[in-house]
Amino acid sequence: MNRQQLDKIDLQILKKLAEDGRKPFLEIARELGVSGAAIHQRLQRLTAKGVVKGTECLISPAALGYDTCAYIGILLSDPTTFRQVIERLEQIPEVVECHFTTGHYDMFTKVVARNNDHLLEIIQTHFQKLDATRTETIISFKEVFKRQIPISDNP
Question: Can you give the C-alpha Rg of the chain in angstroms?
């Protein structure tokens, strides 16, 4: 579904849910002046079309003892091994994101670890065994902010 297929109410629903994903459908309906059933039906359609990819509960990694966050860039020795490398990365629970990229790296991952020693263990046990020419690790001191994409009310 492209942007042209989203009307003003669709965009307002997305904006309300981006602000608070737990906001009840009836409250959104009341704020937008439509029925709760309309909100439910529109969300089902938006989900079926891939606009809404689901809902998630955001858990603080630090609250569960994961105090280190790092980004690891991977330069593959053979770019045709993307699929195999992804399959191996998917087996590492601490890898929470993986992206194909342009620039210095073929792939970029986000890794959470209990501490720097645990991060080193993950790198030595998993990343050094990938089909990579090299990797580079960047440790994040602190996430300053994270937000949803901007959503305007105009289709």
Answer: 20
Can you list the residues of the chain whose pLDDT is less than 70?
A: 1-4, 154-155
List beta partners, residue 75.
134
- Confirm whether pTM is higher than 0.85: no
Among 60, 64, 68, smallest CA distance to 138 is for 68
C-alpha pair distances (Å), 91 with each of 42, 86, 101, 102, 111: 36, 9, 20, 24, 13
In whole angstroms, give the CA distance from residue 40 to residue 44.
6
Give the span between the Cα atoms of 39 and 23, in whole angstroms: 12
Under a CB-based contact definition with an 8 Å cutoff, are residues 4 and 14 in contact? Answer: no
Residue type at 155 in one-letter notation: P
pLDDT at position 49 is 92
Model pLDDT, residue 28: 96
* Side chain identity at residue 79, one-letter code: P
Which stretches of the chain are DSSP H helices?
8-19, 25-32, 36-48, 82-90, 116-125
